[in-house]
Design a protein that fits this description.
By secondary structure, the protein is an alpha+beta fold. Helices cover 56% and strands 18% of the residues.
């Protein structure tokens, strides 16, 4: 499968730790070297079949190498989150959603409820955006009408 992004070393290490349950740094390094293409393909599929939850400016200070203007895409695939830096076209990290209660069903319910809240917030955002656009257009029309009235009054004043 062709993908159009790269993976940071951090993302590869998190894949080895979190998906393959490797712990030792040297074991992780060797496994990454031997399985790099598999990691890339698997993460590409996670993004391709995932749902884009957010795309926008990164507000995370957790990534010191990130720039204030970096745009990130956050994907959800099942109970996995993948964060992609659009400016660098690179997967930054990936992690599972785990509430620490050892109940995958509860994790799924929690994720679905949060997704519903995100969708509700996005819907509200779109409504407000449309309303603001409409109000802006009305104000532009008012400005044009007022400028025309001012021009007419100036002509009237010059005539007097």
């Amino acid at each position: 499968m062709a993908n159009n992004f790269s993976l940071s070393q951090h993302a590869k290490e998190r894949y080895a730790e979190r998906i393959k349950d490797l712990e030792d740094k040297s074991t992780i390094a060797v496994w990454i070297t031997q399985n790099e293409q598999k990691i890339i393909d698997d993460v590409a599929k996670m993004v391709e079949y995932g749902e884009l939850l957010y795309s926008g400016v990164s507000t995370s200070a957790a990534q010191p190498q990130s720039n204030a203007n970096d745009i990130v895409d956050i994907y959800l695939n099942g109970l996995w989150v993948v964060i992609l830096n659009k400016n660098k076209n690179q997967v930054i990290t990936l992690y599972p959603i785990d509430l620490g209660i050892n109940d995958e069903e509860m994790n799924k319910i929690f994720t679905q409820r949060l997704k519903a809240k995100i969708e509700e917030a996005n819907s509200y955002y779109e409504e407000v955006k449309k309303s603001v656009f409409k109000q802006r257009e009305e104000l532009k029309d008012q400005i044009t009408e007022n400028e025309n009235a001012i021009a007419n009054y100036k002509k009237l004043i010059q005539g007097l």
